[in-house]
Amino acid sequence: MIKDYRPYYIKQAWYRLQNLYIRYKLSPQLKSLGKHPFIVKPWHIELFGSPISIGDNITLLGCSDKKTRLTVWSNKKDVNGIMIGNHVLISPGVRISAANSIIISDSCMLASHAYITDSDWHGIYDRSMTSDETSCVILEENVWIGDSAIVCKGVTIGKNSIIGAGSVVTSDVPPDVIAAGNPAKVIKQLDPDQPITTRKDRFSDSINMTRALETAEKESLKGNTLFGWIQSFFSPKQG
């Protein structure tokens, strides 16, 4: 990891800038945003349409070369849109496109470039107009979607299941399995005797977690100066 040369007060100012963007730019576009959101580089999070609901303790990551896009587009007025639960991780480059209803339950993890959609968007024979045919997508609690995987319309993925990187999921996946391939098939059952620690288990105490992170940051940035930070741009040190 590249050393962070910023003084602690500069990094805190950076966090405050992000929070202002979230409050005045991102949050007003959402139907709801839960408590204690951790949103990194929110100006690289793109929201289109509504409703989009996000629960507590979301980890939502944006990146300049991997825009994260949450889109609701429908000819109908009353749709459920995108509903994201608590303690969910959404990595850079994820795209979620809803024409009716996509439900992402608590503690789910979406790796970079994952794509989830509840519509084909155009008909097989009539491709001149968008299609009204949709089918709800449901990710049950603690599902993990691998890098660049695609989850298609009408799919339900069962609790704790994992979808391998690059997979294309076209039919339901049962709970407690690993599925991979195109189309995705079950390749392994999870061991029922192994306990599973979810993001909710790990990060539910957000206040103490925040305090621990602040303490760790103060320690890691201790001794950094404004001059050293500026110098690092022009004369970076090895390591």
Overview of this protein structure:
By secondary structure, the chain is of the alpha/beta class. 20% of the residues lie in helices and 26% in strands. It has four helices and 20 strands. It has helices at residues 8-26, 199-203, 206-220, 226-234; strands at 32-33, 38-40, 45-48, 52-54, 59-61, 68-72, 81-84, 89-90, 95-98, 101-104, 109-110, 115-117, 137-139, 144-145, 150-151, 156-157, 162-163, 168-169, 177-180, 185-189. The protein has an eight-stranded mixed beta sheet. The chain has a six-stranded parallel beta sheet with strand order 1-4-7-10-13-16, with no helix packed on it. Strand 19 and strand 20 (185-189) form a beta hairpin. The termini are close together. The mean pLDDT is 93.
Strand content: 25-35%
Sequence stretches where pLDDT stays below 50 over 5 or more residues? none
Say how many strands there are: 20
What share of residues is helical? 10-25%
Euclidean distance between termini CA atoms: 9 Å
Largest sheet: 8 strands, mixed
Structural class: alpha/beta
The largest beta-sheet arranges its strands as: 2-5-8-11-14-17-19-20
Mean pLDDT: 93
Q: Work out the helix count.
A: 4
Question: What is the global morphology?
Answer: globular
Write the H/E string, N to C: HEEEEEEEEEEEEEEEEEEEEHHH
Structural Rg: 20 Å
